[in-house]
UniProtKB/TrEMBL annotation, chain A:
<protein>
    <recommendedName>
        <fullName>NADH-quinone oxidoreductase subunit N</fullName>
        <ecNumber>7.1.1.-</ecNumber>
    </recommendedName>
</protein>
<comment type="function">
    <text>NDH-1 shuttles electrons from NADH, via FMN and iron-sulfur (Fe-S) centers, to quinones in the respiratory chain. The immediate electron acceptor for the enzyme in this species is believed to be a menaquinone. Couples the redox reaction to proton translocation (for every two electrons transferred, four hydrogen ions are translocated across the cytoplasmic membrane), and thus conserves the redox energy in a proton gradient.</text>
</comment>
<comment type="subunit">
    <text>NDH-1 is composed of 14 different subunits. Subunits NuoA, H, J, K, L, M, N constitute the membrane sector of the complex.</text>
</comment>
<keyword id="KW-0472">Membrane</keyword>
<keyword id="KW-0874">Quinone</keyword>
<feature type="transmembrane region" description="Helical">
    <location>
        <begin position="25"/>
        <end position="43"/>
    </location>
</feature>
<keyword id="KW-0520">NAD</keyword>
Automatic annotation (TrEMBL), chain B:
<keyword id="KW-0472">Membrane</keyword>
<dbReference type="InterPro" id="IPR001516">
    <property type="entry name" value="Proton_antipo_N"/>
</dbReference>
<feature type="transmembrane region" description="Helical">
    <location>
        <begin position="458"/>
        <end position="476"/>
    </location>
</feature>
<feature type="transmembrane region" description="Helical">
    <location>
        <begin position="6"/>
        <end position="24"/>
    </location>
</feature>
<protein>
    <submittedName>
        <fullName>NADH-quinone oxidoreductase subunit L</fullName>
    </submittedName>
</protein>
<feature type="transmembrane region" description="Helical">
    <location>
        <begin position="582"/>
        <end position="600"/>
    </location>
</feature>
<feature type="transmembrane region" description="Helical">
    <location>
        <begin position="211"/>
        <end position="229"/>
    </location>
</feature>
From TrEMBL, chain C:
<protein>
    <recommendedName>
        <fullName>NADH-quinone oxidoreductase subunit A</fullName>
        <ecNumber>7.1.1.-</ecNumber>
    </recommendedName>
</protein>
<dbReference type="InterPro" id="IPR036259">
    <property type="entry name" value="MFS_trans_sf"/>
</dbReference>
<keyword id="KW-1133">Transmembrane helix</keyword>
<keyword id="KW-0874">Quinone</keyword>
<keyword id="KW-0813">Transport</keyword>
<dbReference type="InterPro" id="IPR038430">
    <property type="entry name" value="NDAH_ubi_oxred_su3_sf"/>
</dbReference>
<dbReference type="InterPro" id="IPR000440">
    <property type="entry name" value="NADH_UbQ/plastoQ_OxRdtase_su3"/>
</dbReference>
Amino acid sequence: MYPIVLLSFFGIVTLFLGFSKSKNILLPATLLFLIIALAGNFLEWNKGPLLYFYDMLRVDNVTLAFNGIILLSAFMIFAISGGFQDNPDSEPAEYFGLMLFSLVGALMMVGFQHLIMLFIGVEILSVAMYVLTGSNKRNLRSNEAALKYFLMGAFATGFMLFGITLLYGATGSFKLEQIQGFASNMQVGSESYILYAGLLLLLIGMLFKVSAAPFHFWTPDVYEGAPTIFTTFMSTVVKTAGFAALFRLLSGSFTGVYGFWWIVIAAIAVLTLLVGNIGATSQNSFKRMLAYSGISHAGYLLIALTALSKPSQNAIIFYSLAYSLSTICAFGVLMLVSKEKTIGGQPNEYYDAFNGLAKQNPLLAFVLTVSMLSLAGIPLTAGFWGKFFIFTSAAERGIIWITVIAVLMSTVGIYYYFRVIISSYLKEGDLVKIRVAPFYKVILVLATFLTILFGLAPGIFEGLI
Amino acid sequence: MSASLLILIPLLPLIGFLINGIGFKTIPKGAVGIIGTLAVVASFVISVMTFNDFVASGSQPLVVPLFEWITVGDLRIPFSFQIDQLSLLMLMIITGVGSLIHIYSIGYMHHDEGFGKFFAYLNLFLFFMLLLVLGSNYVIMFIGWEGVGLCSYLLIGFWNKNTNYNNTARKAFIMNRVGDLGFLLGIFTIIATFGSVEYTEVFAQASSFSLEDPVIVTICLFLFIGAMGKSAQIPLYTWLPDAMAGPTPVSALIHAATMVTAGIYMVIRSNVLYSLAPSALEIVGIIGGLTAIFAASIGLLQNDIKKVLAYSTVSQLGYMFMGLGAMAYSASMFHVITHAFFKALLFLGAGSVIHAMSDEQDIRNMGGLRKKLPITFITFLIATIAIAGIPPFAGFFSKDEILAHVFEHNKLLWVIGVIGSLMTSFYMFRLLFLTFFGNFRGTHEQEHHLHESPASMTIPLVILAVLSAVGGFIGVPEALHGSHHLAEFMSPLYDAARQANPAGFEPTTLSHSEEYLLMGVSVAVALISAVVAYVMYVQKASVPAPDSAEKSGLQRLVYNKYYVDELYDNVFVKSTKTLSNILYSFGEFFIDLFVNAAVRLTSFSAKMLRKTQTGSTGDYVFAMVLGIVAILFWKLLL
Amino acid sequence: MISDFGYILLFIISGLVLLGVMLLVAKFLRPDNPNEEKLSTYESGEDPMGNAQIQFNIRFYIVALIFVLFEVELLFLFPWAVVFGNEELIAQTNGAWGWFAMAEMTVFIGILILGLAYAWAKGYLDWVRPKQQIPEIKSPVPADMYKQVNDRYGSK
């Protein structure tokens, strides 16, 4: 609960900090805010389930773990943004302010106990993201992406709201527990159909937010069009929050009708895996490939949802962390590299930008390699254990076939993840000096270190939860 | 005993490795040696403290959990260390002998370009070795096991500009992998049978199995295959003599004192399982006996100073396994300890000789070195007496104890053991006499260079010589009115095994007079061979013929190591290559067909998928609506 | 007995029916003499020209946004005022209820005021934001030279 209040306040403060003459104060200040929020988050560790805001928000260790991942990712992203110093057109205070506000939305989604809270969280998060997507005002693609995102997002939100309405109609409550109570003891009848329809529509809305197929169409365009730093934010924070919310929703309200919905999620998971992995193979742009990779990872996480058990909950937490760390590394390196190599004034985000990276900057090449290995799920990286936990949780539920498909698809993943490793190590490129700020380096190395650490000893993290 | 102190034991060498490994280009040479050595000495000091604490607190074994490591379903593998008699003894040997060898290496490797690299590897090796003996479950042991294999590979091929050395390093690695496969299968079987890999849990559950349970026998045999590879037993022994390509301190530390005894450690560690499977132990004993005599016979005719010692090591390891076969676990451990002293000493002495002889290793070109290298000579002499088994030096007690147990167990194996010990004494004295007695046979230049090694090399020699001389007194047999401290100390380790198989642990039925007789036989045999060697190589001053000379059939057979390498080459290497060629030409086609089809399918569907991504919001929304309608239709109306 | 949803259904049906009936009645009652002038879109007497989908000045949106902000605030104030004035609650809590509600609304409005202040400080409330463009010409001739020339010849 503390980080929600703190971040709301800090967001306003950040906006007003933007009036100060010195722009250099913004980045340290926001980083400090995030550290305070992180500390505040873990104040409630092990305090047991606490309910806030008229039982609309629930705080327990699972919430705190998700919050921790979100805030940690945000911290890293803020840090590598470098305070947007290099672009004179940028409005750092507004960007940071919006990101802080969107974090509030994300935290609400993680901890919601009431569908209205979920809706508010989703909207706070999304609206901020629409704006940030289009923040590069002079770039046509950025504008297009923002508009697309907004239009489709609004469309999905409509479905979600309709779903919530129907659920209210069926059960007479917005509260997860009461919906759970109703759904568990429900007789088949007209109300059950309303509940089913509401559940499906709500799920559709949420699945849009986590870019599951066939609601994924916005993802590649938006990820590619948005400034890379906000793409990173979208693909880590938003996705983690989305899955936390989905898990909470399904485990908190709909375990009673598991038989009804699991096959929907399973089918969508398979479709998402196919679309994400196969789509990624034909991309030439690294950034767009990462967008598809984001879709495929949503597919893996959906598998964990179909299992819906205690191990799968831990699997989602672990996977989100592993995925966030690697994605931040990948985008971080992309930002550095594409800035130095431009095509027609625009950053070069194609694979060939990475040619010869190992010679230009071995550290960046290493960071990139580890993150790609982790995303591909190669052992000794955190990504491997993330996938492993998800697959075992599904197998424990007896859903073997989906695991088989997922494993097949993850072999497809190796193809496109290794392409960039091959580019950076085996291909020749011009020797461009890539400057990396010390703090940037620290963040990348830290994320890489954590990826390897959790890859060597996933038990460390599991011991924490 | 605090856990943090315990963690430091393996951690210090790891830190040493990281410092030297990352900075070996920048850190000055002097500092490299000091860092590397300090790390090990400090870990030795902590080991001693741990040992004292352990004894003072009543010798209670204890498991120190560090963190949860892997949890998969019901299988829980924690990362934890186990402290008991066995691991403490191994700790003392590893860090103690390790420290001496590090000090020695400062002098020995001083002129080498890869000085920093060498110390980094050596520290890394110690880290893995300590992990191997400290781990409280088979998986940690396996990590250590693989880690020491890796370091062994790196150090055998340390002078990696020589292709032959690289090949021998590869040979060692591959041979070990064969053994590791057995070990791994053993671990899997353990997991399948007991659902755990923690020693305490496995052994507690194993006690309820009946004697000769087929599962236990299988596990024991699998584990023993692992031990065969690492401890160089027939048929996986050929890598060890070749491993002498590495620097001499490496041979002393890895290929004599520590790593190769890992197999014995493993068997003693699993004594509960082995005690339940006497038939597996029988195989262990037979393999050990065969290796002992086989390797010793090859050693008789070798002319390379390190090769002789290498075959001697293989042979001594054979003795240890023979002891294990007779369920004389403590006796084998005893031999591990004494062997660590005198074999390390022999290797270091050989290193000192090689150092003095400007990298000459052929004993036919040596001779008369005792005046020029007095300290090396005296220490080498002590070690030779110790290994030959002449009382009261260390080797006598341990070897005699093994032979006494074997005698009780199987008379034929005992005969083999005595013959082996005859050969041992002969080739060791042959080596000694050819190297240090007679006239110098090397080139003039070499003679000019001859010098005693620096203090950093001789001090470890002297310390090890003292240990080789008196080390045997920790286990004086009852027949000689001594008390067997080591056996008493280790006795609690076998409590579970004793319950499971009481018959195997009955006290000896040999009378004192019988024991005296056995001792007499082995001492007499050793002395006779020594005298024969003296007559042959000092009085008659004969020198082994050069390679070009004609040899009799048997001599040629032995000299060429029974053509085992060639046999392996023909049977395994060639057939594997043929098979892989066949598979390459046939299999490649089918595999390509499959792979290409998969690639085609993927890229075709990717192309199709690309078309859906039109970029128009209208299309996207339309696709979404189609999806929504499909879902609603499917779930609500169907 | 009809359920709550039944009422809603009734409302929907009756709404549709009413609309339909009114349009139908009007259809029959009104005279029908169309001409071009009558058929054209009513645009406050202006002549409708061109496409209706033209770009509006972005400032309209900002002003509209700020307007919506305060309209929402106003909408929120009404229900708040009703609960705030709940005499029973005030009596039960010995007046503390009132202060609590007051404080909550102060925080709420305070945040909105901060938003307004931010927009104001950023200058979004000024309809016209002329940006003075000071032309800078890089000329090899120094500026004071012109002045001298002007001084010399300007007076004549």
